[in-house]
């Protein structure tokens, strides 16, 4: 009756419950120090929602997927994000997932993953980069985007998060307006994402993950890619949706 998809990422854990093949419940929480503890807390939530029980199938993905002891299937992130994006958008194109530790570009055709690229060797151009910068600036992600939309163009040239943070500290010391620094931070991420995505062909793009509801990010990505980048609020759960769909098979 139920299919549960669990996506334990480096920053957040997302859970989706499908009932009769359709999205019924969703839940997001911080991953915390222990992925196993997070998996246990998710199971407690499922019990409270009267989802856990005989006949329920579980699929796990993300960095902490091996820490879900009750998973019937453990599936790669690429497969899950592809399936989840196809469920949400139902169109061929390139899925862009800006995760906490990596950024992925996944080419979909008729619901199948045809090719993918991933940047997992450096946190620049990922959610971790944005987390470091928002903390340094004392802002939320929403505030960062709002300020950036009113900022003047500046360039943060460092390719490494550690050096980029030093560059931001220097800009703060010079009295550079936060709006301008925010603009430079987001443009740095957009530039690195586009450099990665340029390795795969596409004329239509879909943004999944935690930034999917950020209109400014969508606007800047669309401009840089010279093509529309679509998203929907549930796209943050694409990996978990894909895991639930795979668990049902």
Offer a few descriptive terms:
249 residues, alpha/beta, five-stranded mixed beta sheet, 8 helices, 10 strands, 40% helix, globular
Could you outline the blueprint of secondary structure elements for this entry?
Blueprint: E1 2-8, E2 12-19, E3 22-30, H1 35-48, E4 57-61, E5 73-74, H2 77-89, E6 93-98, E7 103-109, E8 112-119, H3 127-137, H4 141-148, H5 161-173, H6 178-197, E9 205-208, H7 215-225, E10 229-230, H8 238-247
Parallel strand pairs: 1-4, 4-5, 6-9, 9-10
Antiparallel strand pairs: 1-2, 2-3, 6-7, 7-8
Helix pairs in contact: 2-8, 3-5, 3-6, 4-6, 6-7
Q: Would you mind describing this structure in some detail?
A:
The longest helix has 20 residues. The protein starts with a strand and ends with a helix. The chain is of the alpha/beta class and 249 residues long. The strands form 2 sheets. A 5-stranded mixed beta sheet has the order 3-2-1-4-5. Helix 3 runs parallel beside helix 5, helix 3 runs antiparallel to helix 6 and helix 6 packs across helix 7.
């Amino acid at each position: 009756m139920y299919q549960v998809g669990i996506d334990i990422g480096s920053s957040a854990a997302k859970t989706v419950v499908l009932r009769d093949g359709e999205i019924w419940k969703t839940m997001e929480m911080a991953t915390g120090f222990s992925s196993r503890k997070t998996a246990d807390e998710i199971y407690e939530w499922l019990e409270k929602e009267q989802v856990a029980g005989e006949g329920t199938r579980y699929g796990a993905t993300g960095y902490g997927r091996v820490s879900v002891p009750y998973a019937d299937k453990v599936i790669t992130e690429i497969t899950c994000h592809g399936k989840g994006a196809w469920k949400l958008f139902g169109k061929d194109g390139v899925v862009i997932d800006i995760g906490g530790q990596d950024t992925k570009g996944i080419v979909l055709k008729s619901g199948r993953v045809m090719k993918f690229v991933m940047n997992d060797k450096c946190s620049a151009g990922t959610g971790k980069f944005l987390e470091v910068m928002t903390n340094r600036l004392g802002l939320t992600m929403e505030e960062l985007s709002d300020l950036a939309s009113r900022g003047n163009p500046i360039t943060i040239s460092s390719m490494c998060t550690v050096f980029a943070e030093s560059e931001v500290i220097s800009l703060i010391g010079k009295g550079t307006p936060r709006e301008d620094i925010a603009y430079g931070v987001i443009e740095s991420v957009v530039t690195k994402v586009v450099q990665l995505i340029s390795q795969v062909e596409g004329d239509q793009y879909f943004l999944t993950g935690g930034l999917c509801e950020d209109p400014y990010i969508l606007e800047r990505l669309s401009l840089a890619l010279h093509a529309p980048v679509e998203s929907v609020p549930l796209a943050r759960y694409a990996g978990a949706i894909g895991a639930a769909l795979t668990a049902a098979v």
